[in-house]
Specification:
The chain has 293 residues and is α/β, with parallel strands linked by helices. It has one domain (3-275): Metallo-dependent phosphatases (Purple Acid Phosphatase, chain A, domain 2). Helix content is 29%, strand content 16%. The chain has helices at 14-21, 41-51, 78-91, 134-139, 147-150, 159-180, 218-221, 253-263, 267-270; strands at residues 3-6, 26-33, 55-60, 112-115, 185-188, 224-229, 236-240, 243-247, 272-275. The protein has a 5-stranded mixed sheet. Strands 3-2-1-9 form a 4-stranded mixed sheet. Helix 7 links the parallel strand 5 (185-188) and strand 6. Helix 2 packs parallel to helix 3 (78-91). The chain is globular and about 50 Å long.
Length: 293
């Protein structure tokens, strides 16, 4: 019985959908879906219909793509959209950030699995750039996230305000859970918890849309053994303070096909084993590289 994780499967791309549909069943194992499953509720439901029968249990956290208001004028927005996604997952027996944290019962020993919905607040940026200027700073290098047009945080005034509320909720739940559980945790969130991990070589200023500094110490504060995230489309394993950080993205078809050529990965390799911890990690293709500011 093993715990796997994957993110950013983007089933709106036909090649991704076909690849996911051809995945062999692993009926004894659990799977974490770490956000950006699709751009619409229909796409998310399609992915769940494909994957739920293949695994004993699925756990889902939202990415930014699930939260997009699509279509822009008539689709659900903000909290209402998130609530609809939670309801959809529950209809398929999928655990969400709104459900009690489960204890992993399989190989690798008991761990408290903590799916979290934590957004970003534009605080991933150089110290000399005020948060209010973060988006303008990113646009200086022709970088702008589609979220600025499609992610509407209603009823909150801003994504940053929604992020602050979600951080507060998550901190409370984690604090209470750790008082009741003696087990180490697996923290699960779509966005990286640490700014130093929000590295995209081709578009470094995209870090603005990649997380919040409010979570920088969660891996030590909340007894994490492993942190699982996605969003970057750069699958890798990193370490901080003895904690293992797994970025588990599949990404767009051209990205994972290039990975197949360069790293010899097949689709199954993108389903990253989380527990028991494998002997070989996923590596860090960016280790030792430097990037422009």
């Amino acid at each position: 019985m093993r715990l796997y994780a994957i993110s950013d499967i983007h089933v709106g791309f036909r090649q991704n959908l076909i690849a996911i549909s051809e995945l062999p069943a692993q009926p004894e194992d659990w799977l974490i879906l770490c956000g950006d499953v699709g751009d619409s509720l229909d796409q998310v439901e399609l992915a769940l219909r494909l994957l739920v029968p293949k695994f004993a249990q699925l756990i889902w956290v939202p990415g930014n793509h699930e939260l997009w208001t699509v279509p822009r004028k008539t689709g659900l927005s903000g909290v209402a959209r998130y609530d609809a996604l939670v309801a959809l997952c529950r209809r398929h027996g999928v655990l969400t950030p709104e459900d009690p944290f489960p204890v992993w019962p399989g190989q690798g020993g008991p761990h408290l699995l903590a799916p979290l919905f934590v957004l970003y607040d534009y605080s991933f940026r150089p110290d000399d750039i005020p948060i209010k200027n973060s988006v303008a700073w990113a646009r200086e290098s022709d970088v702008l996230c589609t979220d600025e047009a499609l992610l509407h945080p209603v009823p909150y005034q801003s994504v940053g305000d929604w992020c602050a509320a979600r951080v507060q909720v998550s901190e409370k739940r984690l604090t209470e859970a750790l008082l009741e559980s003696p087990h180490p945790t697996v923290l699960i969130a779509h966005f990286p918890l640490r700014q130093e991990h929000a590295v995209l070589p081709r578009i470094p200023r995209f870090m603005v849309w990649c997380g919040t500094r409010r979570t920088e110490r969660w891996h030590t504060r909340f007894r994490a053994r492993i942190v699982v995230s996605g969003h970057l489309h750069i699958p890798c394993t990193r370490y901080a303070d003895g904690v293992r950080f797994e970025e588990v993205s599949l990404g767009y078809p051209d990205q994972w096909r290039r990975r197949m050529e360069q790293r010899g990965w097949g689709l199954v390799d993108h389903f990253r084993q989380i527990l028991p911890i494998p002997e070989d990690d996923a590596g860090d293709p960016l280790r030792g590289m430097s990037f422009p500011p």
